UniProtKB/TrEMBL annotation:
Pfam families: RlmL_1st, THUMP, UPF0020. Residues 45-155 form the THUMP domain. This is Class I SAM-dependent RNA methyltransferase. InterPro entries: DNA_methylase_N6_adenine_CS (IPR002052), RlmKL-like_Mtase (IPR000241), RlmKL-like_Mtase_CS (IPR053943), RlmL_1st (IPR054170), SAM-dependent_MTases_sf (IPR029063), THUMP_dom (IPR004114). The keyword Methyltransferase applies. It comes from the Bacteria. The keyword RNA-binding applies. Keywords: Methyltransferase, RNA-binding, Transferase.
Amino acid sequence: MAKLDLIATCPMGLEAIVAREIRELGYEDVTVENGRVTFTGDELAVCRANLWLRTADRILIKMGQFEAFTFDELFEGTKALDWPDWIPGDGEFPVEGRSHKSQLSSVPACQGIVKKAIVEKMKERYHTDWFHEDGPLYVIEVSLLNDIATLTLDTTGPSLHKRGYRKLVTEAPLKETMAAAMINLSRWRPERPLYDPFCGSGTILIEAAMIGWNIAPGLRRSFPSEAWDAIGEDRWEQAREEAYDSLQDDKPLEIAGSDIDPKAIEVAQAAAKAAGLANELKFYVEPVVKARPRGDYGCLITNPPYGERLGDQKEVERALRQLGNLSASIPTWSTFVLSPSKQLEHNFNRSADKRRKLFNGRIECQLYQYFGPLPPRNVNKEPSDQ
């Protein structure tokens, strides 16, 4: 198996979480950069990363990197790479591009040069002047940053946040990758209750259940690299079998949520059913003032409405005060709130124990973290990592 340079792209602020996930998959050569995590692995790593990474966006194969101040340098550097080792004679290979702080600032021109260089390289291997491009898809990206060109192959296709269970959406939905990150940053474990009083389309609850049962988030979707001969069907089959063998769907879960909008709850129930979790999650139509999380030592994890996108600011502040009252009424619980509000701690009438800057789309937010006591250890069970 080949040693590949791989890149996991991700939203700003989630790099350390993605790096931790990659290490948990068994890959140690990990480097954290802005908006991406690089690591080395083989072809099987491509399959595992696509199936398992909960907080990354895409898995790219780094084909090469070189200085490119001129179009000639971009052409020659691109042509020198081993494209035919990956792309077959019938492969479809569109070129995407971006440029930042580089002399080659025209992205369409750079895309054209890269495409031409790859075609010339392919001609040498396949001895033809014309490529029909009616076979498997190989999306190439040329990224120019400070006059350094990086050429990659996209193994993922649609972003990894598209798990396949959410066919309908509510207004301003939370991405699955961000929901998974919030759960990752909390101290939640599947033996603890979890509640979301602004559950919307249920993303936090579904992601929590998938984590609790160790369901690989990519298990219900497909990837373009499944059709790549250089990866191989056998490796994808092995990675999927590993994922199925890792399921822990016999664990009892106490995961519930509520929302004032009955249509949102309908969307959430449909998504839970599509994810195979309809019997494990409880949904209620009720405002936050009537929310009653059950159990002790649970986690309240939520993404309340934003004034920028939903409702007006007074309604948002009232909702945050009600959320603060709910949090105060369950003293053994920990509370995690993703919000752009600068007034959240004021509305909660207490300072957060910890804050972490995260970007929900383009909106800068804070994950406000209020830590409750940890559950007492049960002497009759194996100690768990709390």
